Amino acid sequence: xxxxxxxxxxxxxxxxxxxxxxxxxxxxxxxxxxxxxxxxxxxxxxxxxxxxxxxxxxxxxxxxxxxxxxxxxxxxxxxxxxxxxxxxxxxxxxxxxxxxxxxxxxxxxxxxxxx
Length: 115
Fold this sequence. Notes:
Layout: H1 2-13, H2 23-26, H3 29-43, H4 45-48, H5 70-74, H6 77-86, H7 100-113
Helix pairs in contact: 3-7, 6-7
């Protein structure tokens, strides 16, 4: 009973954020960008290039997207996450290698390129 009352008081006072720890909310935007950059350099730089301008490896078919272009900036987060997740004709699907959080971190880094 005392533990229940204590937990209730902590929750009311704002001392308990969530049972899951609130990882996503607790991480700063800069931390997500930093994590996304590491993943980008590991998985994306080969085709999209160091600066995201699509100047990496050229394969048969469409050139890699310029991630710094105004057209990329206009796309919604959900569209870009879907592209990361599902891939494109010349881009592999990353859903088996990147978690949902990793994909969001990569997106945060890509968004930082267009500023």
